[in-house]
């Protein structure tokens, strides 16, 4: 009986912290959009190049808000789900190839090479959720990489275990941050996240999906030497 109020207090604190973080993350792009819109509406900007620059900034910040809102909706939906979709099976490499095509422009702009290897296998995860999981991992691996770097997506099955790995040659994660990178809104380098447009929710979403389907997640990283995230799901032979 004494544990219940304590648990409710913790949940209330988590909700308050989440609301505060969301408010902060939305306020920044909204302030930028409002500022540039007011300047354009005032008519003081007459140079066409400046006008286009302000319009571009408004579009960039609007996209940032859309990404954040989509991530919040994904996370809320996952937190409310008590059961995974049953009897689901998604070919991992087939889906990874689709995502790589979608992310090819961003990778090329960043000077990153994307590659896929391994053997086809099916993960016991609903396709749309596995897409979200892989997209978040691949986008992170591109954002926190370096020009000339690479991202490798691999998958395979051994006995009853399906393994999915996303490995990059990027900046890596210091040891003291590795236990917290799957927390909501946690960022190792806030200034870099602001520059790359990260919401701080991607890895939290990945963790929730893995947990929902009874999987395991492992992070290995060295500063300056890249990061490897491995996810494993058990599959029953009769599925």
Lay out the secondary structure.
Elements: H1 3-42, H2 48-80, E1 90-91, H3 92-110, E2 113-118, E3 122-123, H4 127-143, E4 150-158, E5 161-168, H5 190-196, H6 202-212, E6 216-222, E7 226-234
Parallel strand pairs: 2-4
Antiparallel strand pairs: 1-3, 4-5, 5-7, 6-7
Notes on the protein architecture:
This protein is of the alpha+beta class and 239 residues long. The protein is globular, with a radius of gyration of 20 Å. The mean pLDDT is 83. Strand 4 (150-158) and strand 5 form a beta hairpin. The chain has helices at residues 3-42, 48-80, 92-110, 127-143, 190-196, 202-212, and strands at residues 90-91, 113-118, 122-123, 150-158, 161-168, 216-222, 226-234.
Radius of gyration: 20 Å
Helix content: 40-55%
Mean pLDDT: 83
Q: Helical stretch count? A: 6
Name the poorly predicted regions: none
Question: What string, H for helix and E for strand, traces the elements in order?
Answer: HHEHEEHEEHHEE
Distance between the termini: 42 Å
Approximately how much beta-strand content do the residues carry?
15-25%
Number of strand segments:
7
Summed up, what is this model?
The chain is an alpha+beta fold and about 240 residues long. It has helices spanning about 5-40, 50-80, 90-110, 125-145, 190-195, 200-210; strands spanning about 90, 115-120, 120-125, 150-160, 160-170, 215-220, 225-235.
Essential attributes:
18% strand, alpha+beta, globular, 239 residues, five-stranded mixed β-sheet, two-stranded antiparallel ribbon, 53% helix
């Amino acid at each position: 009986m004494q544990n219940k109020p304590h648990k409710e207090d913790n949940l209330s604190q988590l909700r308050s912290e989440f609301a505060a973080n969301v408010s902060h993350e939305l306020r920044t792009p909204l302030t930028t959009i409002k500022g540039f819109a007011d300047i354009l509406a005032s008519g003081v900007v007459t140079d066409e190049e400046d006008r286009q620059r302000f319009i571009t900034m408004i579009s960039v910040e609007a996209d940032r808000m859309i990404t954040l809102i989509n991530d919040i909706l994904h996370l809320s939906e996952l937190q409310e789900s008590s059961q995974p979709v049953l009897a689901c099976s998604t070919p991992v490499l087939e889906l990874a190839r689709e995502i790589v095509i979608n992310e090819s422009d961003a990778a090329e702009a960043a000077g990153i090479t994307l590659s896929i290897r391994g053997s086809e296998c099916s993960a016991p995860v609903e396709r749309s959720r596995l897409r979200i999981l892989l997209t978040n991992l691949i986008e992170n691996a591109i954002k926190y990489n370096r020009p000339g770097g690479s991202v490798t997506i691999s998958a395979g099955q051994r006995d009853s275990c399906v393994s999915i790995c996303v490995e990059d040659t990027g900046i890596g994660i210091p040891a003291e941050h590795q236990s917290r990178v799957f927390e909501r809104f946690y960022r190792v380098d806030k200034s870099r996240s602001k520059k790359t447009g990260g919401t701080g929710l991607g890895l939290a979403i990945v963790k929730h999906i893995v947990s929902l389907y009874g999987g395991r997640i492992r992070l290995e990283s060295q500063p300056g030497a890249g990061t490897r995230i491995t996810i494993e799901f058990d599959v029953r032979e009769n599925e």
